[in-house]
């Protein structure tokens, strides 16, 4: 039954994430929100929603390793696996200078997360700091969007669904995310206990991969439409939201959260290292391109990380 619950959890999270994005984007268009804000804020938050519900539910059920490991594993998977596979399919040309600022924010908050973890606890005041930074980041993005709109007015897209359907999608998606998170956390923790592996290992691998499925689906769609410049911004934005929103809200609702020693000595360094490698792959900044060989390197690194998580640090 645990494997059935695990599968149902994955399916519910993936479908709910898709409907949340569709409903949220349609709602944003009803209120005439710009494409930049939709891409950076609405879509990034939508693709991070599965991680949020899973980590929040895990923390409430007293599975701190799942709550923290899910965020770290998802951030690793987003860059190393999702971006890597996408670059193999179609090299990613990065034109927007805003990407460089967003990467800097991602790296700085990742380092801040590491500093917060040094005492092996994630506490209430640290969660509040994350939420304050998140609020400032969102307001900065909206302000910048409005300034760019004044210089180069964009044609706002019409909503795909009427207001009632858009709201219905969002409500249904929220319910699906809640039940999906419940099934996934319970199923995964029970399976981990039966086969004798840590919650941390199953969270940074299987759970993180499952909650990263919306990003993977978004990246495939972006590759088909050849809109990978938007895609890379969404990936970085999703990683920012994973840390600030998920860890911020989770540590406020359930505090303090215990940090596994292996997260501090192993997982977090992989997350930081992969983020730094992304910056190196974006050089030179004016003509940045993530080519197929860089995509292969990312995927190889992800495979190595998962292998070491199960062997070197396994049970």
Secondary-structure blueprint:
Elements: H1 2-30, H2 35-60, H3 64-89, E1 92-94, H4 98-117, E2 121-122, H5 124-151, H6 163-195, H7 199-211, H8 213-225, H9 228-253, E3 257-258, H10 261-281, E4 288-290, H11 292-310
Antiparallel strand pairs: 1-4, 2-3
Low-confidence stretches: none
Taking the sheet with the most strands, its summary is: 2 strands, antiparallel
- Termini separation: 23 Å
In CATH, the homologous superfamily goes by the name: NCX, central ion-binding region
The assigned CATH architecture is Up-down Bundle
Portion in helices: over 70%
Q: Give me the oligomer status.
A: single chain
Strand content: under 5%
CATH topology name: A middle domain of Talin 1
Given helix and strand content, the structural type is mainly alpha
Biggest sheet strand line-up: 1-4
- Spell out the helices and strands N to C: HHHEHEHHHHHEHEH
- CA gyration radius, whole angstroms: 19 Å
Average predicted local confidence, pLDDT: 83
Provide a count of the helices: 11
CATH class value: Mainly Alpha
The rough form would be described as globular
Quick one: how many beta strands?
4
How many domains make up the 3D coordinates? Answer: 1
């Amino acid at each position: 039954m645990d494997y059935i619950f695990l599968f149902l959890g994955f399916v519910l999270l993936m479908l709910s994430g898709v409907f949340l994005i569709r409903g949220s984007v349609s709602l944003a268009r009803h209120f005439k929100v710009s494409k930049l804000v939709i891409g950076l804020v609405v879509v990034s938050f939508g693709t991070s929603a599965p991680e949020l519900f899973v980590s929040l539910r895990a923390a409430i059920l007293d599975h701190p390793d799942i709550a923290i490991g899910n965020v770290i594993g998802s951030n690793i998977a987003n860059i190393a696996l999702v971006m890597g596979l996408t670059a193999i399919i179609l090299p990613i040309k990065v034109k927007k200078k805003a990407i460089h600022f967003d990467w800097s924010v991602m790296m700085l908050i990742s380092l801040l997360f590491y500093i917060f973890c040094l005492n092996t606890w994630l506490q209430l005041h640290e969660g509040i700091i994350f939420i304050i930074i998140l609020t400032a980041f969102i307001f900065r993005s909206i302000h910048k969007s409005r300034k760019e709109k004044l210089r180069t007015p964009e044609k706002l897209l019409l909503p795909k669904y009427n207001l009632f359907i858009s709201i219905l999608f969002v409500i249904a998606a929220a319910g699906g995310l809640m039940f999906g998170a419940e099934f996934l956390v319970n199923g995964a923790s029970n399976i981990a206990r039966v086969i004798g592996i840590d919650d941390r290992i199953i969270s940074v691998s299987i759970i993180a991969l499952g909650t990263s499925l919306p990003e993977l689906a978004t990246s495939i769609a972006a590759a088909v439409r050849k809109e990978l410049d938007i895609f890379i911004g969404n990936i970085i934005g999703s990683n920012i939201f994973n840390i600030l929103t998920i860890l911020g809200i989770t540590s406020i609702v359930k505090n303090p959260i215990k940090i596994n020693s292996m997260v501090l000595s192993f997982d977090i360094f992989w997350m930081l290292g992969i983020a730094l490698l992304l910056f190196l792959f974006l050089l030179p900044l004016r003509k940045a391109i993530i080519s197929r060989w860089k995509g292969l390197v990312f995927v190889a690194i992800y495979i190595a990380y998962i292998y070491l998580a199960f062997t070197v640090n396994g049970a």
